[in-house]
Amino acid sequence: LDLAADLASLALDRVLDERSELAAHHLAGYTDAYRHDPRSALAHLEAAERLAERLGDTWQLASVRQARGVALRSADDLDAAMVAFESAMHSFASAGDAMHVNNARYMMAATAAERGHPTEAALVWVDQCAEYARSTGNRHELAHAELTRARLTPDEPPDLTDAVATFRRVGDFRCLVRSYLLQAEQRPAPERAALYEQALEVAESAGDQLHKERALEGLIAARWEAGERRRAAVALGRLVSLLGHGPAVARCPEAMRSELDDWTAAIAEGQARSVPS
Prior knowledge:
Layout (H helix, E strand, L loop, with lengths): L1 H12 L4 H17 L3 H18 L2 H17 L3 H18 L2 H18 L4 H17 L2 H14 L8 H10 L2 H12 L4 H18 L2 H17 L3 H15 L1 H6 L3 H4 L6 H10 L4
């Protein structure tokens, strides 16, 4: 993402015409959306959408609208994100791109999962995604469908073995982190901790701040529940370095908050580990 952001900045500096301006804003919008900067992303995507409409480029218009959905989802405006993804799906259909129709539909189902209120429609979407992926041999889209179905059916133990292998193979770190986090939620504390550690490692490699915070929050709780008090406090120190003391402590288990005075050295150690060398 950092490299993509550098490329977007370079592209914006070298705009020659409306086509190159569209490409530059499109890339900048996508990059900012995935870096959880929705305000900047939406500004770039608004410019890109105007240009795509003026140029009559239906595929670019569809892709920009999909990026808008990603940005809105990052801003927790899930209803607006759903509208954007649906618009993207129909625009991809008009452009004759069946793969991206399916990808936008997957994002609609994933957004429904994030809402926390799965619907029958979302389950239908994800089953359609899986059917398309199997019919075309697209293992990456099948992995997306498997992960999303697991998120939509939290009462069913997820089997994400194949999905994890696929995400790792293709370098989809964001969905790999999501898979580890989802698996961790249904495991005993010691097993949860190992999965949260894996999620944290991948999130750090990808520069994914949001999932890094979530992995640390889960790791703190799992270590504390397993009786690994010092290791929980070290993990808390790492979260403090990201969020500040007050917000980080607010994410701790309640029982841990009452004993923090006993673990100040371990918390400081965690903070020190987070400082780049």
